[in-house]
Design goal:
The protein has helices at residues 11-14, 35-50, 63-71, 77-82, 99-120, 133-136, 140-155, 180-183, and strands spanning 3-4, 19-20, 24-29, 54-58, 86-90, 124-128, 160-166, 186-193, 196-204, 214-219, 222-225. By secondary structure, the chain is α/β, with parallel strands linked by helices. The chain has one domain: P-loop containing nucleotide triphosphate hydrolases (Rossmann fold). The longest helix is centred in the middle third of the chain and has 22 residues, at 99-120. The protein is globular. The mean pLDDT is 88.
């Protein structure tokens, strides 16, 4: 099985060298756990370390904030953009009038993303975040149906994709709507119990991944995971 290296120190060691190529992996966790940092680091490392083009798609976050976050780590974003190794895109759903209208607009935006993937030969993709779908659907059943369809269509892009989702931060909370963890090929959860941060690989298709929780830090280079240490479940609140 071919794998896509994240380049994040300690993470690839936990998942047999990288994410299975073409997989969709859910990155879940509460507010402030480091999800966006991990996702931007994945895109940045792809271009900088492996010359694999990547696209960061935001549903709700201002793209300037994402760029500023990257610059805080002294990552040379402009160089990657000039080499067509990295792009950011804000999902534009416009004026929503009905559930059917949302579905149509999501399909339109997927076509735009698909074209971008083809034009730059993107190998990596980030969707930040799937939790935002809940803003447009009042019915949770409709949210789940949309997520199933959305994830399925992402598979056709042949990218290795990270899907971000926000939870309440509990140690056994892995998704916002109770369905994301089942439609994704892998689930990686981040925790923050001040002042400690930790990461847990709940599942990863075709991978004999680590089954324990590991501590990590956010350094001036980004996320660094201590793959040789463990965190007790009881310490996660």
């Amino acid at each position: 099985m071919e794998r896509v290296k994240t380049g994040i120190e300690g993470l690839d060691e936990l998942i047999e060298g990288g994410i299975p190529q073409g997989s969709s992996v859910l990155i879940s966790g509460g507010s402030g756990t480091g999800k966006t940092i991990l996702a931007t680091q994945y895109i940045y490392n792809g271009g900088k370390m492996y010359e694999e083009p990547g696209i960061y798609v935001s549903l709700e976050t201002n793209l300037k904030n994402i760029i500023w976050n990257m610059q805080n780590f002294n990552w040379d974003i402009r160089e990657l953009q000039e080499k067509n190794l990295m792009k950011t895109y804000r999902l534009n759903l416009g004026h929503i009038t009905s559930d059917e209208n949302v579905a149509e607009k999501v399909d339109e935006e997927l076509n735009v993303i698909s074209q971008m993937v083809k034009e730059m030969g993107a190998k990596r993709l980030v969707i930040d975040s799937v939790t935002a779908f809940g803003i447009w659907f009042a019915n949770r059943g409709l949210v789940r149906n949309m997520l199933f369809q959305f994830t399925d269509k992402l598979k056709n892009l042949n990218c290795t994709t990270l899907l971000l989702t926000e939870t309440g931060g509990g140690r056994r909370e892995f998704s916002a709507f109770g369905v994301e963890e089942f439609v994704a090929d892998g689930v990686i959860t981040l925790y923050f119990t001040p002042p400690h941060r930790s990461i847990f690989v709940k599942k990863m298709r075709g991978t004999n991944h680590s089954k324990i929780i590991h501590p990590f830090q956010i350094t001036d280079k980004g996320i660094v995971i201590n793959a040789s240490d463990r965190v007790l479940w009881e310490s996660i609140k």
